[in-house]
Amino acid sequence: MRFDEAYSGKVFIMSRPTAEESDVILFGMPMDWTVSFRPGSRFGPNRIREASLGLEEYSPYADKHLEEVAYFDAGDIPLPFGNPQRSIDMIQDYVTTILDQGKFPLGMGGEHLVTWPIIQAFHEKYSDMAFIHIDAHADLREEYEGEALSHSTPVRKICELIGPENVYSFGIRSGMREEFQYAKESGMHMSKFEVAEPLKKVLPTLSGRNVYVTIDIDVLDPAYAPGTGTAEAGGISSKELLESIRMIADSDLNIIGADLVEVAPAYDPSEQTQITASKMIREILLGWTK
């Protein structure tokens, strides 16, 4: 599937009518084939789109309007149900096509394993890049119950691909002892529990670098985002996440792509999680894209 093919489903608010006139491609990755607790994140992208209809197009955080950003919602990649490897291959090919046309990829998950093929695509284009990971979970396992393809493994794979010294994790409050030990010994950068304060200290060290950012919605406390597959108590507030997105926007990092993952709407009948996620997508569009 090409990202510029016609899409007849719901689209994120104020999407441009064609990819040709857009600088940013917004796309969904409806995959939850490897989750270890509660499935349902494959329904996240479309519910985020639906929630965006209630958003204001203007952001007082960025003092910008969505009409100032040329983006195209290309819909969801038609991933084959239950086939992780084929899905990963399709995501990598899809993002490669976006990059080949000089556009900014902004993905919506789906489980967190979807970030792995995106980084593989970026690694082919950017030999020196950094990776910012905002999440409740370390995602540093080598495998889960014997499966190397798992939503608990993408950051470990990314460390091995781009070098752990180029990986920066924030908000981490869950993982195996061995994951935290790996983070400590490998040279990667992990900030536990908080996001905004440690991020403020790290951003100057990444000045001028090409950086990809992934946000797992479960970095938020379940009080703010209960609609996720593996909720973890003790998380940050939506206000702190907005502040962190704004902080990245105001830095001189060269943000080359981003994603927001793990919205599982079935566990939040209030729709609070997808409403929050849609607002975060708006702020990313207004702050991180050129």
Automatic annotation (TrEMBL):
Q: What is this protein called?
A: Agmatinase
Keyword list (alphabetical) reads: Hydrolase, Metal-binding
Q: Tell me which species this is from.
A: Pontibacillus chungwhensis
Transmembrane intervals? none
Per the UniProt entry, the Enzyme Commission number(s) are: 3.5.3.11
Q: Please spell out the taxonomic lineage of the organism that makes this protein.
A: Bacteria, Bacillati, Bacillota, Bacilli, Bacillales
Q: From the record, what ranges are coiled-coil?
A: none
Q: Which family does it belong to?
A: Belongs to the arginase family. Agmatinase subfamily.
Instruction: Enumerate the InterPro entries for this protein.
Output: Agmatinase-rel, Ureohydrolase, Ureohydrolase_dom_sf, Ureohydrolase_Mn_BS
Task: Give the superkingdom in one word.
Answer: Bacteria
NCBIfam families for the chain: agmatinase
One molecular function GO term is: agmatinase activity
What sort of enzyme, by top EC class, is this?
hydrolase
